[in-house]
Amino acid sequence: MKFFSLTPLALLAALPLCAQEALPEAPTAEQAPATAPDAVCPTPEAPAEHVAPPADTPAAPAEAAAPPTEEAPAEQAAPPAGETPAEAATPPAEETPAKQAAPPADTPAAPAKAATQPAEEAPAKQAAPPAGELAAPDQEPAPPAPPAATDAQAAYRSIVKVEVAQQQPDFDIPWNTGEYAQGNGTGFMVAPGRFLTNAHVVSNAERILIAPYGDARKIPARVKFIAHDADLALLEVEDASSFADIPCLKLGSELPQLEDAVRAVGYPMGGRRLSVTRGIVSRIDTIPYSHPRNQSHLAVQIDAAINPGNSGGPVLKDDVVVGVAFQGLQGANATGYMIPIPVIRHFLRDIEDGHYDGYTELGALFEDSSNPALRRHAGLPDDGMGCRVADVIEGSSCDGALQVGDIVLTVGGHPVDSSGMIELDGVRVALQELAERAFSGDVIRFELLRAGQRLSVDVTLAPLKSQRLTAKIYDEQPRYIVFGGLVFQPLGVDVAQAHGITEAGVALEADAHLRSGRGTEQNDIVMLTNVLRDEVNARFANFGRRVVTKVNGVPVTGLSQLAELLYPTEGSERPPYTVIELADAPLPLVFDNAVIDTANARIRAHYNLPAHARLIP
Amino acid sequence: MSRSLILPALCGLALAACKPTPRTAPDAHRPAPATPAPAQAAPAEPAASPSAEAARGLVLVRTAQQDYNRLVPWLKQEMRYRKALGIYLGRGLVLSTAEPLTAATYAELSLPDDSLSVPARVLRCDRDLNLALLSVAQEADAAALFHDMPELAIGSPLKLGDTADVVGKANGLHAFARRGEVCGVSGNVPQLMLQVERLPEGSGPGTPVIREGKLVGLATSGSGEQLNIVNAELIARFLREEQTGTPLLGVQLRAVQDPVLHHYLGLTEGSGGLYISRVFPGGAAAAAGLQEGDVITTIEGMPIDASGRCEHPLYGRCAAGSLLSILKPLGEELTLSIRRRGEQQELQVPLNRDVLRSGLRAVAEPGSRPRYIIRGGLVFQPLDATYIDALKKNNNTGIPLAFLRAQQQETKLSEQGIREPVALTLVIPTPATSGYEQAGEALVTAVNGCTVHHLDELAELLERDTEDNIIRIRINKAPYELYLDRRTADASDEQLRRRGIPALRVLSSETTE
Hints:
The complex is a heterodimer of chains A (617) and B (513).
Chain A: H1 8-17, E1 20-22, H2 37-40, H3 46-56, H4 59-65, H5 72-77, H6 84-101, H7 109-116, H8 121-127, H9 149-157, E2 159-168, E3 179-191, E4 194-197, H10 199-202, E5 205-211, E6 219-227, E7 232-237, E8 250-251, E9 261-266, E10 275-289, E11 295-302, E12 314-317, E13 320-329, E14 336-340, H11 341-350, E15 364-367, H12 372-378, E16 387-392, E17 407-411, E18 414-415, E19 421-424, E20 427-430, H13 433-437, E21 443-450, E22 453-460, E23 480-483, E24 486-490, H14 493-499, H15 503-515, E25 526-531, E26 546-551, E27 554-555, H16 559-566, E28 577-582, E29 589-592, H17 593-606, E30 613-614
Parallel strand pairs in A: 8-13
Antiparallel strand pairs in A: 1-13, 2-3, 2-5, 3-4, 4-7, 5-6, 6-7, 9-10, 9-12, 10-11, 11-14, 12-13, 13-14, 15-16, 16-17, 17-18, 17-21, 19-20, 21-22, 23-24, 23-30, 24-25, 25-26, 26-27, 26-28, 28-29
Chain B: H1 6-18, H2 50-54, E1 58-65, E2 80-90, E3 93-96, E4 104-110, E5 117-126, E6 131-136, H3 139-146, E7 163-170, E8 174-186, E9 191-196, E10 208-211, E11 214-223, E12 226-231, H4 232-240, E13 251-255, H5 259-264, E14 274-279, H6 284-288, E15 295-299, E16 302-303, E17 309-312, E18 316-319, H7 320-323, E19 333-340, E20 343-350, E21 372-375, E22 378-382, H8 385-394, H9 401-408, H10 410-415, E23 422-427, E24 442-447, E25 450-451, H11 455-463, E26 470-475, E27 481-485, H12 486-499, E28 505-506
Antiparallel strand pairs in B: 1-2, 1-4, 2-3, 3-6, 4-5, 5-6, 7-8, 7-10, 8-9, 9-12, 10-11, 11-12, 13-14, 14-15, 15-16, 15-19, 17-18, 19-20, 21-22, 21-28, 22-23, 23-24, 24-25, 24-26, 26-27
């Protein structure tokens, strides 16, 4: 299944058809036009404000509040989260809930007030009054919560609204700043001052504010770790003191069962207060995650309503988190999806070393090996075991270890059947699931039959670099080069989408790129995506959007290398012409270098280009 | 085309069969009768006009077309019915357009008023020029059909600005002639555009253009007030030459128009050229030594100007590329001047259609039986242009990657002597193909370790004995090798035959094994 996501045809084609649509990351729910004060004020300075303060101030509080630094949060959030921090936090939680139960009454008004406050003020204000003070001491407890609700109410206090000002990159005109948008999602505290949410809630964020349950204030937060491939992010507030007396949610330890009752809690569209919906676990399956576009992982389908704004919110079973609500299914009724515990734990463990490495890929395709002639040729008995390797991607984890035609007998000690399935924890899963559960650098042993000989090979797992081509890009500014009015961009799903590039035009190049396991920043498929008309290119034939193959006879291997070819360093000898060749084009594009510098300057002025190129996202 | 056409066609057939033949033998050299037959005379027309006189030679050409389904090669496509006009030339010959006769399973000739229809025989068909020559299928029918028709000579070619008459019969009865003027040139094989007053109903493809009582053009398409016509020059060549089709160089060309590119290529001031971006293996240009990057600057001594056009005596300034196909007939040589890395050279290019004869660009004759092999449920077909075109028409998702890879290696395949690349096109579910459902649409590279050069060789390799009775088929995509057990394949073949596939092996376009 996952292998197919590597074929460009399948992927680029899948784009518009993608049935799974992420809960339109709140922006659609409460989209604010760029004119809204919220959205506008953080424009150029805000990012700095975000990046700078956390560096000195909150670093200390964070450490103070949660002694363990880089590695610890994950540690805490992961296995012990259930016991230590949450348990420790529980006693105070017992008391606070009552106090806290009241404020919700007036919260709706408060956030509105808070929303009008310039973002810059927030941190300063936050630093002064301790979190507890604002917790509405003047509010009399509303009707005392029923005793049974105590746990639930305590849990709700750690579920927060995440308000995000986003700047969407513009892959069509890559030097433009892109649109500003405002979106909401949900998050929940898994360690003091640390909140789990969806990656899509906080992608391309200019500013992130956390609005605690029943609290008028909004507390600035930043992304500590983000896993676009698993649609998860861990946020960290700059000042954790507001949450000092709030318990962390307990993370469950395993998958729920079919028909288990669960509740989705969050701040979806349709109101400003916390919403709870209830349902059961309807299905557990591996499905495509729509945020990265090119990844499929385990997900749990529930029939509790999940709506835009629920994204990032916890799905609880008996007050224990069993998943993070993340996407719905268009055109279907009562189907919501949550990211289940195994995927969450995978994320939390991955970041334990202070860095998110991402999912690994085997990079091999296994074919159904039930054909009797195939089995007889491979010397396999008629026992339904053993699976033939159908393809191996160059440069992938399995390259050099597996060969096409090998019969895989066991993987990590698990016998492999003829359809490539293994039994893990009593469940039959595709053997790729082992890579899904493992981490970069882990080693998996394969027992093989190669040309009748038994042998074992070790495969060291790593992410597949070339997958960048088929993944959506977030939190990066689009890269580009403009030369002689020609706009060059590295191919990716975003660029393909922005320019209407179909897989038919790039199938061979994309296939070669994916199969060669290339795909680092230095190694792209570069496309000519647009022509800014000027006298130097006015007579060029219009070939549409094509792959750039050569410049002055030198094969183009990446955007940065192309920049060196087009803009040679000062003093280096320049040929009289710059000759650009495009795939399948009937003519080369030729520039006279005697006039190109003038032309480039003129084009830059006419088209308001901040620079000739952006090579580093 | 209207389906109801079949009805008059069949009636005509019945009529023709039982009608007594007025004359026993056609008199091919019979002089044209001086007066039109009373039944066909249009009262409004001046009887003496040479153009209206020519209308007496009009006939209707009706055809049924049905080609094979190139994607499921043992099936045929839906039937289509077509109609065109034709003009009697004398000696029992009718000139019409090729398009309705392409992959025709039946053709007949009728008088325009439908008072007589007889089965027809296609003598020659040139799809590039869009011309066809027909006669009656049975000699005996000729006299009845042609007895009143004048012989028509081919006139001197039209050129830009000339005038000529478009001739027809309104409602199949009333002859008319409309004066038209040649106003332009279009098409890859140049056709003249004839500006004419609005024409009556019933003047479609095959409508003749007459000047001074001679045929100077044949309309192939167009509507209302503009007809695209084949010029007399090409009609005469079609009637004279033995080979059909226009010459193909086997290159990808584009006119050089950008001044910087012009300088870069070293072209002289004020001139232009055709840039060769690809030379296809096996073609005339490859044989003549043309290379990618060459620029054609003159064709038969005619210089190409900065806009990529040549001055032609008939067609005026017209696209230089289109002249390559009509300046000289097949079998002759074309003289080209080229500029290669700044150096001027002269080359003789043999005029042929070799680029279509082998490899991925091979074209199957329309209506011919597709060649294929079905073994154990795997369907093998030549991977040629005809198959790829059918795939493109049928498939919205584009050409499968494995075929794109094959196209990318076109030159390499040709160099390996693979004159007919073979594809595994379909996988029919059988016991022998279990697990191979996704293996279709790939190039077959080898069987039991032997390279496959053409379909006949594949047929032989599939039957060759192997030690373990397993046939190993290599393809150019995952899983790269398929295994077929001979006995299981035999049983599967038997099952497919019982299910009604008429033949499991068609190696010749004419016969069935």
